[in-house]
Automatic annotation (TrEMBL):
Keywords: Hydrolase, Leucine-rich repeat, Nucleotide-binding, Plant defense
Originating organism: Medicago truncatula (Barrel medic)
Matching SUPFAM superfamilies: L domain-like, P-loop containing nucleoside triphosphate hydrolases
Gene3D superfamilies according to UniProt: Helical domain of apoptotic protease-activating factors, Ribonuclease Inhibitor, Winged helix-like DNA-binding domain superfamily/Winged helix DNA-binding domain
Gene Ontology BP annotations: defense response
Protein name per its UniProtKB record: Putative P-loop containing nucleoside triphosphate hydrolase, leucine-rich repeat domain, L
Superkingdom of the source species: Eukaryota
GO molecular function terms listed in the Swiss-Prot or TrEMBL record: ADP binding; ATP binding; hydrolase activity
Length: 436
């Protein structure tokens, strides 16, 4: 962990720290002097750190305050941590441990697998959490898993461990991210592939379970990862504008037998073939790929554990028929994708376990007819109108833009009966504008 850089801490004044502690602990002027005295001592040991105050003061068992105070006063030794940060990290670690809910703790550590200072999309957290198995399959539907992530996210916000940007995004403080790296120790790692030392480290380190890599795409797939325990791989890659289609070697994923979540985002569209290499990922549950020309993705039909497939701003030859063989596929997300051939809805309607479909501006000239299976959640979007994706079932379709297509009679009836919002423009059959 890089502890030489300066970390901007959000610390309260002593007065504000005590006000916050009293508010979270429910201390008032009518409280006993003993309670006020203990609370004041603990507030000081929280080092004016909001996260420590929020978690510790919210403890329902006031009789544990003596134990808490003793723990906070106990000196600790931390390797590779600057002296002025030791007390902060000690409070952060205590606050993290005191959360007790393993799902909430897992979500907190997961957030360090995103680039520094970025706004983290909650839907992406849902994909990765379910892929990682944070909820241990303790959910009946994909939307149930989403709700559990939102609950855990809100607990972290209430505890000041995450910052809420808006309803769809969160962020981590720099100090919280560095602290999470220290807590996650060797299991959670973030590396820059341009740093030869960091790159060599992930090639020999065997304890990494969750990994963020940033750097050149060639450096990534030329790595000889010793990934016998790796479960999550998130890659933010620089593309290569002049290079031809790069084929990921089969040996790359063969070294990752336990991989459950794979997230690849490229800054520039990159031609990349995963056709043969991903077939060894028999445990993969979530795949998220952004800004990649994937070409043939038929091999994805050979991933028996796959639950969620997200493609954003990608190019594919077609939505392959093999997808319909995936018995565990619950969610399909296609946004701003180019699909070169065939009507993707011919495949979508045959997916046996599909619960959610997010299909946004990915229509092609072959989409002459749109047919949907019964779904728990769907967002069908074509056009430039503002999209409200908080609705569980929504159709926003401007048929005047691009090639002409229409809903089958059965699908139109299904949408009319189930949708929360329906907006159609220029559809066959004289439909101009409808609301439901």
């Amino acid at each position: 962990m890089d502890c030489d850089k300066g970390i901007e801490l959000y610390l309260l004044s002593e007065e504000d720290a005590w006000i916050m502690f009293k508010m979270y602990a429910g201390i008032s002027s009518s409280s006993s002097k003993t309670l006020i005295g203990k609370g004041c001592k603990i507030a000081k040991e929280c080092k004016q750190l909001p996260v420590a105050i929020a978690v510790i003061a919210s403890c329902d068992r006031v009789h544990e305050w003596d134990v808490i105070l003793k723990s906070l006063k106990k000196p600790v030794s931390m390797q590779d941590v600057d002296d002025d940060m030791v007390e902060v990290y000690k409070c952060l670690k205590f606050s993290y441990d005191y959360l007790k809910d393993e799902k909430v703790k897992g979500l907190f550590l997961l957030c360090l697998l995103f680039q520094e200072d970025v706004e983290i999309d909650v839907e992406t957290l849902v994909r990765i959490c379910t892929g990682m198995g944070i909820f241990r399959d303790d959910y009946c539907s994909y939307n149930d898993a989403r709700n559990q992530v939102v609950v855990a996210k809100n607990k972290l916000i209430d505890s000041c461990l995450l910052l809420e940007v808006n309803e769809r995004n969160v962020k981590m403080h720099d100090w919280a991210r560095d602290g999470a790296q220290w807590i996650g120790n060797k299991e959670f790692r973030a590396v820059n592939l341009s740093d030869k030392i960091e790159k060599s480290m992930i090639e020999w380190e065997t304890s990494i379970r969750h990994l963020l890599c940033e750097g050149d795409i060639m450096d990534m797939f030329s790595c000889k990862l010793n990934g016998s325990k790796l479960e999550t791989l998130i890659v933010f890659a620089n593309g290569c504008q002049d290079c031809e289609c790069m084929e990921v070697p089969s040996s790359f994923f063969e070294n990752l037998p336990k991989l459950r979540t794979f997230n690849l985002s490229c800054r520039d569209e990159l031609p990349l073939s995963l056709a043969h290499s991903i077939q060894s990922l028999t445990n993969i549950r979530s795949i998220l790929i952004e800004t990649v020309d994937l070409g043939d993705i038929s091999a994805s039909g050979n991933l028996p554990s796959l639950e969620a497939l997200d493609l954003y701003d990608c190019t594919i030859n077609e939505l392959p028929s093999e997808i319909a063989k995936l018995e565990k596929l619950k969610l399909l997300f296609l946004q701003d994708c180019v699909i070169r051939m065939k009507n993707p809805f011919d495949i979508i309607e045959r997916c046996p376990s599909l619960e959610e479909l997010h299909f946004r501006n990915s229509f092609n000239g072959f989409c002459q007819e749109i047919t949907l299976p019964e779904l728990q959640r769907y967002l069908i979007y074509k056009g430039r109108c503002k999209l409200n994706d908080s609705l569980s079932k929504s159709v926003n379709f401007d048929a005047r833009r691009g090639n002409e297509c229409f809903f089958s009679k059965e699908t139109f009836k299904y949408c009319m009966q189930t949708t929360k919002f329906l907006w159609l423009n220029g559809m066959k059959g004289g439909m101009e504008k409808s609301h439901a």
